[in-house]
Amino acid sequence: MPQSKFTPAQAEELAAAFAREGVDYLFIGKSGAILLGYPETTQDVDIFLPRSRENAERVLRALRTLGFQLDPALPVSILAGSEMVLMKSGPFALDLIHAPDGIESFEAAKSRRVMEAGRFPVASLDDIIASKRAAGRERDLSDVRRLEQFKSEYMRGRKS
To answer: Which of 29, 50, 83, 102 could form a disulfide with 106 if both were Cys (CB 3.0 to 4.6 A apart)?
Structure first.
């Protein structure tokens, strides 16, 4: 049963499983920002994946080791690189995103990533903000204002 909100322990579990399988990925969305110190909560873990069959196979192996129940449609969607695959049948809610709004490509986002604590590949705050702005939903636009404020505090903290 999914937990009610994203926790750092979930990020640790996911990062460890993905590392064992050699998965290429980035934490994105509010969960990515939280790993950078953003003081909010979210209900799920958002992961940005490249469209690659080999990487998708590694993702599926990792998800199975984490205890995700994969109904027959999920592997097909993941292997096909569907834009977004929502997973609610595991130890936590997980969104796998192959084409987030506002980000031109996985490789471009990966080149701008932040390695938080040396083990969490997180999309840059600029990419997280661009994706939320491009999604255009009211809740995302509300997040953008708070994320921009957090970004200025985060950047000041990194300079000192």
So the answer is: 50
Q: For 77-107, give one letter per residue: b (16+ CB within 10 A) or e.
A: bbeebbeebebebbebbbbbbbebebbeebe
For 39-83, the pLDDT digits (tens) are: 999 999 999 999 999 999 999 999 999 999 999 999 999 999 999
Contacts of 73-79 with C-beta under 8 Å, sequence gap 24+, read 79/53
Classify domain 8-159 at the CATH topology level.
Beta Polymerase; domain 2 (3.30.460)
- Condensed to tens digits (0 to 9), the pLDDT of residues 9-37 reads 999 999 999 999 999 999 999 999 999 99
